Amino acid sequence: MAERSTFVGVNSITFNQLFKTEANCLEYLSSLKWEGGYCCKRCKNDKYCQGKKPFNRRCTKCRYEESPTAGTMFDKVKFSLLKAFHIAFKISTKKKGMSSLELSNEFELRQKTCWEFKWKIQQAMASSLQQPLQGTVHVDEFMIGGAEEQKRGRSKGAKKLIVVALEILDSGVGRAYAEIIENASAKELGSFLNKYVSKEAKVISDEWRGYTPLKADFEKLEQITSNDGKNFKDIHIHIMNIKGWLRGIHHHCSKERMQGYLNEYHFRYNRRQAMGVIFDLLIKKMVKNEPVRLLSTN
Ligand SMILES: [Zn+2]
Fold this sequence. Notes:
Blueprint: H1 12-18, H2 22-33, E1 48-50, E2 57-59, E3 65-66, H3 81-93, H4 100-107, H5 111-124, E4 136-144, E5 160-169, E6 172-181, H6 186-196, E7 202-205, E8 222-223, H7 233-249, H8 255-269, H9 278-288
Parallel strand pairs: 4-7, 7-8
Antiparallel strand pairs: 1-2, 2-3, 4-5, 5-6
Bound molecules: zinc ion (ZN).
């Protein structure tokens, strides 16, 4: 098994030096795609030879040829792989990401094309749901869009209700997740917590009745008075930051789209201490192209 050389860092000069041509990107994808060894998709043979195109692999038994992009999110992209890599680098490493308009200007692509590709990236940025929040976890909801924030409303029209969970550590704040929900019922809140928060966690919410029945699943769940937000300072700062970012980049968008933005925000946020490997991680997710669950529907 060949050792893969991964890109580490957030420096765009280094990045530009390493990714100058289509071949550089194909090589990166190829070593990532087959890092666990080659296996023919058609006949499961593990021997291959060079295909017709560089970095393609052709099965020695059934002659099936596979490209590094086949079956990945880079398949059938309407522009060069080089641009796709540079867009992925910008979106993953820039603190606030990049809007489709900014991408369109920088990469000389139509805005709609950028918007579509960014959507793919946001899907790759959805949580794998493999690392639920642990320890002390604060949870709260907020409204965005439409008339200004009324608490405990319903997602309706432009107005969307978002629930957030944030790890509170001794040293500050940890990871966080957010999801659009239909309403602040126990069913919707419970479905969110079940996906993103460990059952062992000490979940802390305010006194909203929607949380009370969730003590059945989350034994350590505690409801405390909000005290005008004083008891939920960290999560309120987090919410303010999400709101600020969302306002800066879009006006109206669908629920699915909004969930994409929440995924993007938290993908970066949860790796703020490990930005050096964030590009490689994103590419890995885009290569694996695993089905992602975007919205809580059950
Ligand atoms: Zn084969």
